[in-house]
Design a protein that fits this description.
mainly alpha; MetI-like fold; 11 helices
C-alpha cells in the first residue's frame, strides 16, 4: 500500500526512475563503455564526441567511464555509511528512549557532543587522523551521522513506549529486547526510513567534499569529488570536465531527496485519508 502511495507522487516516481537509471548505468558501466577509468590511452582534453560521450580529461582518460565508476563508488559509500549510522542510531535511540534515567541522560549528552560539530567538519577531522581510503571515508561519515538517527529514534520511542499495547506486553512478561524489536521498532521506523533515504544523498555529497579537498578517495580512483577538484583549472578551456561529474552528483542527490519526500508523504497516516 505504501509503494502504491509512493508511485502516485510524481516527484517521488521521477526520483525512483532516475535512481534506477543511475544504478543501471553505474552497474553496467564496464560493459557499456569498454575503456578503463584509469587508463591514460587517448588524446588529452578532447570534447564530447561519438567515441567519448563526455570527452577526455587532462591525462587522456575517458570521462564517461570515470563518471560511471565514480557514481558506483559514491553510491556504495553513501549506502554503507548510512547503513552503519542507522544501525548505531537505532541501538542508541532504543536504549536511551526505553531505559530513561541516567542511561538516557548519558547517551543524549554523547549525542549532543557529536551534533555540536557539522558532520562534514567532523568527518574532515577524523579523516586527517585515520588517513584516506574507501573504508575510512565510510567510517568518518557514519561516525558523525549516527547521532541524528539516535535523537530522532529516541523521540519516536518516547512517544510510543507508554502505549497500551506496550504496557500489555510488559505485563505479559515479555523481555525488553522482545518489546523493542517486535513492538517498538515496527511502529517507529517510518520517520527513520524517510530520514535515511535523504541522508544517503547527504553522505554522497559529504564523500564528494572529502575527495574534493584531497582527504577522501585518492587518485587515480575516479571519484566524482576528485574529478571536480581536478577540473577547476580547466573551467574555461574544457568545461565538460566539471559539467558531467557535477551533473551526475547533482542528479544522484536530487533523486534521494525526491524519494525521501515521497516516502514522507506515503508514510504519513494523515495522507490519503
Amino acid at each position: 500500500m505504501t509503494f502504491k502511495k509512493l508511485i502516485k507522487n510524481r516527484l517521488a516516481l521521477a526520483g525512483l526512475i532516475g535512481l534506477a537509471l543511475i544504478l543501471l548505468l553505474a552497474t553496467l558501466g564496464p560493459f557499456l563503455i569498454p575503456y578503463s577509468p584509469t587508463g591514460q590511452q587517448f588524446a588529452q582534453l578532447k570534447p564530447p564526441s561519438l567515441k567519448h560521450f563526455m570527452g577526455t580529461d587532462d591525462l587522456g582518460r575517458d570521462i564517461t567511464s570515470r563518471v560511471l565508476y565514480g557514481s558506483r563508488l559514491s553510491l556504495s559509500i553513501g549506502f554503507s555509511a548510512i547503513a552503519i549510522a542507522l544501525i548505531i542510531g537505532l541501538i542508541a535511540g532504543s536504549i536511551s528512549g526505553y531505559a530513561g534515567g541516567l542511561t538516557d541522560t548519558f547517551i543524549m549528552r554523547l549525542v549532543d557532543i557529536f551534533l555540536a560539530f557539522p558532520y562534514v567538519l567532523g568527518a574532515i577531522a577524523l579523516m586527517v587522523v585515520m588517513g584516506s581510503g574507501f573504508l575510512n571515508v565510510v567510517i568518518a561519515i557514519a561516525a558523525f551521522m549516527w547521532a541524528s538517527f539516535a535523537r530522532l529514534h529516541r523521540a519516536n520511542v518516547l512517544g510510543i513506549k507508554e502505549a497500551e499495547f506496550i504496557q500489555a506486553a510488559k505485563l505479559s512478561g515479555a523481555s525488553n529486547f522482545y518489546i523493542i524489536t517486535r513492538h517498538i521498532l515496527p511502529n517507529t521506523m517510518g520517520p527513520l526510513v524517510v530520514y535515511a533515504s535523504i541522508s544517503v544523498g547527504i553522505a554522497i555529497l559529504g564523500e564528494a567534499v572529502l575527495s574534493f579537498i584531497s582527504i577522501g578517495l585518492q587518485p587515480p580512483t575516479p571519484s566524482l569529488g576528485l574529478m571536480l577538484s581536478g577540473a577547476l583549472q580547466y573551467v574555461e578551456t574544457a568545461p565538460w570536465l566539471m559539467l558531467f561529474p557535477g551533473l551526475f552528483l547533482f542528479l544522484i542527490v536530487l533523486c534521494f531527496v525526491l524519494i525521501g519526500e515521497g516516502l514522507r508523504d506515503a508514510l504519513d497516516p494523515k495522507e490519503y485519508a
